[in-house]
Amino acid sequence: MNDSAEVNSAAPKKEKPAPEPTATLSEFFQYISACEALLLAFAIVCATGTGVAQPLMLLAFGELFQGLGAGSVISGAVVSDDRMNTVLLILIYIGVGMFICQAIAVIIIDTITARQMLKYRRAYLKAVLRQDVAWYDVSNPEELSTQFAEAMVKIQKAFKAQAMLFVGIGYGGGGFILAFVPQLGNPEVAGVTLLSVPILICSAVAMMYLVEHGSKMITKAYGVAGGIATECLFSMRTIVSFGIEPAFEKRYNGALSSVHRTTIINKTLLMGSGGLILSSYLIMMATAVVYGAYRLSGEMEDSSFPLAVNGSVYSSGLPNGTDATTYYCADASGALAGVSIGAPCAPLAPFKMTCQLGGTIADASETPFLYFAAGVPLEQIPVQNYEATVLAGLGFDSVAAFTDFVKSHASASYLKDNPDYNPCFVAGDKIIIAIFAIMMMGEGFGMISQPAQTFSLGRSASAKVLAIIRRVPAIDSFSVEGLKLTGIEGRIEVSNVTFAYPTAPQKLVCKGYSLSVAAGTTVALCGPSGSGKSTLIQLLERFYDPLSGSITLDGVDVKALNVRWLRSQMGLVSQEPLLFQGTVAQNIAYGKPGVATQAEIEEAAKMANAHDFITSNLANGYETDVGLRGGKLSGGQKQRVAIARAIIKKPAVLLLDEATSALDNESEKIVQAALDEIMTKQKRTTIVIAHRLSTIRTADKIAVVSEGRIVEEGTHEELLSLGGMYTSLALQG
């Protein structure tokens, strides 16, 4: 039992993954200029104004709600033309303002987005070109392009999302103000509706998590699939030659299947949370309607009082049995918020001087029965001094006559016998405004979630891009620091160097590597594959730095030299020549810093035995496009162009890394002849990595490399006389 406990306690705990880095706002907007920042702030104000303008429409509609039932003529209740015209003008002004604000916001934000994306791309490419080779070894270059493209899309969407983000903030904020400011809406009704908000928030949080988590998983899966596709496209000849197309198709389909499964699961959960949000929204609206109606009905019932008709008081009904109870509501300021009569009459306006046609009383004469509500401004006479008066059968032929009558009977006030009136805070128009304002608030804040999530994802993508942009490599080719020697000779000393590649730090490739190369001599390295021959060239170019030991050029440690200047003094020809999309002339000219003349290009091509085939075999000569990675040229042609590119700058040190190993016999002879001529006629320091000993017999020195060390040195004849490893290699051919 104890042993088991010990085993369990010793078991390693699964570590939580590190949180996804997110760029701060200052980092995300670091490329924005002061002028752009001001324009962006103005665009944000316009976007917010666009959102705020929509809830403002409720105030205009509130004017209509108040006017319903408040007729100005004896013939019945109508909404005045002046009120309608005012509301119409308000709506037109709001609409025009929304259009202008939205147009300004979109134009400015789209323009700034385009400028920022250009700056991001330029900075990223510069940073990638700046990185050292060790970074590429561990960064999976096949996936870099896919990841960068996806990051740029997310950053671009994040910039554009600002418009909708602040429209939503303005929309939701405007709705909140209308709902909770007593003079505009009804805080009590609005507050009750918010009981459903916790469900809404939980659903929104769940949706945001699913979007973020799912996006990361999908991006990662697409990155793997993109890496496979890139590898396949760049290795098509090899894939076809081995007939392994089905294997790559299977790998790619497997990666896409992972994307498909992840997407289905994420979208299913996402739709579920979306449905929960919609349900919460509907519950919230239903709560507002039911509670508002309940409160209005209850308060009007509590504020009822008997109705006087021609001096007769009816507390339960008119002579024909019609309900004669009058209701009123007074708001916190003492002004009546609503008055209505339970008899066949529409609700009266908020205690203004009005008259309305209420209907008929079923007596023998069936005389039309007019209900009149008379009043004066409540700020002049306290509401407690009023009583309801309904006059029937009076022969007023105009509103003016009725008004004069009311003024003369002002002492017969409302509510004279009801001093303990029930003040109420629920008015029909404010209830409607509160309900629609809460709807707008929910819709507005709901609009925020998607652009906010997009903005968050953009900041996460920005953090990854900026991490590369800010990374300063240990070997910085963009740095201006370091020495630049004059009158360079080309003397190289490698002293007791140890080195391991970043991808396999525990495996030493160089174990006390030491070699002397005199200026102007040719030194060849040979030995078994993996012994560390090519590593020396990469250390000389400062693609990497040794773990210990030193490498000097003319007695100066290469670490003290300016990296770009050091590489400008070396001409490298690799085993696999890599040409760039463009013309032959452009590819050769890349070898010389600055601008290469046509004469220099042709001179380098002649030295590399490339001039004849360029002018004779290529349709456009030096202006012939070589295709992607030089695909329109043969292997021997590409290698000769690569040699011309290496020697056009007249380097002090020439590095040949198995330059002919990938060529057929005929091409190898042509290329080797060019190299021999270069090494013979131009006395520059040359280091040759040999795959065939026949190509290095004339070298001034041959060094045999085995297991990361130099085990033999000498000329061809001297090494053969030793009967050691070189002799064994020679016998193997």
From TrEMBL:
Residue stretches making up the ABC transporter domain: 492-732
InterPro entries: AAA+_ATPase, ABC1_TM_dom, ABC1_TM_sf, ABC_transporter-like_ATP-bd, ABC_transporter-like_CS, P-loop_NTPase, Type_1_exporter
Region Disordered: start-end pairs: 1-20
Transmembrane regions listed in the UniProt entry: 28-49, 90-112, 163-183, 189-211, 269-294
SUPFAM superfamilies: ABC transporter transmembrane region, P-loop containing nucleoside triphosphate hydrolases
Protein name listed in UniProt: ATP-binding cassette superfamily
GO terms under cellular component: mitochondrial inner membrane
MF term (GO), any: ATP hydrolysis activity
GO BP annotation list: oligopeptide export from mitochondrion
Residue ranges annotated for the ABC transmembrane type-1 domain, each copy included: 41-298
Matches recorded under Gene3D superfamilies: ABC transporter type 1, transmembrane domain, P-loop containing nucleotide triphosphate hydrolases
Domain of life: Eukaryota
Pfam families xrefs: ABC_membrane (PF00664), ABC_tran (PF00005)
SMART domains given in the database record: AAA
Family to which this protein belongs: Belongs to the ABC transporter superfamily. ABCB family. Multidrug resistance exporter (TC 3.A.1.201) subfamily.
Keyword Nucleotide-binding among UniProt keywords: yes
UniProt keywords, alphabetically: ATP-binding, Membrane, Nucleotide-binding, Repeat, Transmembrane, Transmembrane helix, Transport
Topology class, membrane: Multi-pass membrane protein
Organism: Chrysochromulina tobinii
Subcellular location: Membrane
